[in-house]
Amino acid sequence: MRRLILLSCLISTASLAGGAYVRVPAGEFQSVLKYEDNKGKQKVAAFDMMKQPVTNAQFLEFVRTNPQWQRGKTPVVFAEQKHYLSHWQAPLVLGTNVKPQQPVTQVSWFAASAYCEAQGARLPTWNEWEYTAAADPKRRDARNDPAWRESILGWYAKPASTPIADVGKKPANIYGIQDLNGLIWEWTEDYSAMLVSADNRNQSDPDKSKFCGASALSMEDKESYAVMMRVAMLSSLEAVNSTSNLGFRCAKSLPRTQTRSP
Amino acid sequence: MKRSVFPLIVAAVLFSLPGCKPGKQDVAADTAPVKTDTGGSAAGDFGPPQGEPVNAVLTSPPLVPPATGRTAPAKVIVELEVKEVEMEISEGVKYTFWTFGGTVPGSFIRVRQGDTVEFHLKNHPDNKMPHNIDLHAVTGPGGGAASSFTAPGHQSQFTFKALNAGLFVYHCATAPVGMHVANGMYGLILVEPPQGMPKVDREYYVMQGDFYTVGKYREKGMQAFDMQKAIDENPTYVLFNGSEGALLGDKALKLNVGETVRLYVGNGGPNLVSSFHIIGEIFDKVYTEGGTHYQENVQTTLIPAGGSSIVEYKAEVPGTGVIVDHSIFRAFNKGALGMVKTEGPENKAIYSGKEVDSVYLGDKAVSSAPVSAAATATAGGVLTLDQQIKAGEALFNGTCSVCHQSSGAGIPNVFPPLAKSDFLNADKNRAIHIVLNGLNGPVTVNGNKFDSVMPPMSQLNDDEVANIVTFVLNSWGNKGGTVTAAEVAKVRKETPRPQGAAH
Predict the structure, then answer these.
(1) What pLDDT is stored for residue B371 in this prediction?
(2) CA 20 to 30 Å from B366, out of A32, A199, B200, B488?
(3) Domain edges within chain A
């Protein structure tokens, strides 16, 4: 009994550590997305982002305390019954094929948002995510380095049937954040507003019914295609969808006084 | 139907008259009006589908589904699954292909003009990428692409009416399109004309594509996609049916003498245009660009990227036809090779096989009698030095004297001398090596420097090389000696020839 308690203590410490947030300073960057109302650089305010993606162990803890998010109990409008956490052995059992320290996948946007909300957090915006993922261990923007691009493409070239690695195995980027590239796809808060055409050959003549609103987008094709594929992936999803390679991490806005630039 | 077709024929004839040259016009006037126009999509709607829905038979390359055999429009259900799979692109070389149906090219789809096609695109849950499909047979925006954008573990459905007959390419159109296509996401859909395709004995499915890997051609191991090479249109591989060897050896297409074969040929690209050719065959018919009308008696047909061609021929003689992209370096240095093996009785009246194999010396003609004499003596095991020298002299005059001169003096500063040559006399094996493999770069002969290129003469057999070197060693003040065929064979075996060199 005591050992069991000790074990559960260990698990919760581990998950707390994994759920740690890291401060990302404010900055400006050129997104791969071209916003109709802002073709220049995107400003990103300082924010906190989870050091690593949310793990199976962490999400298991969440559904234990929030039974409405257990597999089979979630309304179909919030998660596809066929896919949601379908790789877990049972609603509250990971099973032998699913490791606690692997990032959780097969979660809908609604479930991911609920998890972050329970933490007093939210999903990162695409801009925050892309801004942070542009870094490598030494630079805040490593996107011009072919090695940076190759590391992303190397992951694309591996079929998704290869098991997903545990979180935190790769070096952190300059902000101290890990696994943004090369581990999983990640939900973003505003993924559905990206409105990238399903057929990217339409860029010059977007279907107006689909592209109305200020944020009609198109993408630069050539150098940014590695990032663009992530955008394409997110664009293909509905908020109830989940896939075997799609997970998330949370972010937090800073209190207003802290976001202002000095 | 008849009522609507007739005015079209009249219209077509009327329209075509002003464009005809005067001479041709007379001919046309003398013959019955020829139907030159099928009416295209305007004449391709035969009304609502009839009968129960039909599940389309899909086949993996090089196989083609059977003819639909239908005479009325049907509702056809096509279920195509996208799979991202690791396969061999060349022996010992792996690549992650993105496929329609698990193969490159994707499954062959066959429907009839006027059919209503209910298309289900499934993206396997194990896939990483979203995908969609643009079928060139679709009349409608994006060819179905916008209606079929599908996340992994999901499927989407759309329906179209196949209004135009022809052989059409389909491909993935998800961003970045070029990368999805370069990874193998293309295939063919045949829309049969209402009367079906004319009967042939065999049908096959062949599709060309270009591939871009970070590693060099045939560099072993797992190879990743190289975007820069793709942008530069500089492929590492150009292949039929997605792998080097997909149509070679046991996997060659098979035919019997007397049979007529039809190849449905596509070109997925993403970049290259194919000069499609079969060595040793002439296409009796080519439905250019996969359309309705055929050209006859064609050697090489051009297939655009994202286009197709239907070629037909009758196999008259046995043997192996080699399928190539006649942009020929692609065939021999990038993998664009396939084979059609035809079996059956020889027909010497059409093709004799090799009748004569003799030395052709042009203006260097000398008697080849000593060569024959030496060959006979070798076979009898009684070859003398004298016979070797005589045979070597004849061969030397045919092969070597253009550069080294009949006197063995060479040409100052260009071709080194063989007469009284310190370089030659120093090492007999080196001399054999140079004949077999050529020599490239600076050498010093009798104190003079030469920096030139001698091509490999490896087409000479061991006996011939032995006789030539023996002749040279015993001429023009050289030190003498004998070279045997066995010595030549040894040198030949020890020196691996560079890949692709003449053999």
Answers:
(1) 77
(2) B488
(3) 20-141+185-191+237-254
Mean pLDDT check: name the lowest of A101-115, A126-140, B27-41: B27-41
Residue-by-residue DSSP string for A217-228: EEE--STTHHHH
Contact present, B319 and B267 (Cβ < 8 Å): no
Structure tokens at A133: 């993922």
pLDDT of residue A201: 56
More confident residue, B437 or A38: B437
Q: Considering all CA atoms of chain A, what is the largest pairwise distance in Å, rounded to the nearest integer? A: 66
Residue found by looking up tokens 């020196």 in the block: B495
Note which residues in 156-185 of chain B have CB less than 8 A from chain A. 173-177, 179
The DSSP bridge pattern shows strands B439-445 and B337-343 to be unpaired
Chain A, residues 223-252, CB within 8 A of chain B, namely: 225, 228-229, 231-233, 235-237, 241-245
Distance CA B353, CA B148 (A): 54
Distance CA A205, CA A210 (A): 11
Does the distance separating the beta carbons of A83 and B125 come in below 8 Å? yes
Cα separations (Å) of B331 from B211, B275, B325? Answer: 14, 11, 6
pTM of the model: 0.71
CA–CA separation, A58 and B277 (whole Å): 61
- Model pLDDT, residue A256: 72
Q: What is the ipTM of this complex?
A: 0.74
> How many Å lie between the alpha carbon of B306 and the closest alpha carbon of chain A?
15
pLDDT in tens, A69-105: 999 999 989 999 889 999 999 999 999 999 999 999 9
Positions of chain B with pLDDT lower than 70, given as ranges = 1-35, 356-368, 496-503
Residues of chain A with Cβ-Cβ distance to B128 below 8 Å are 156, 158-160, 185, 245
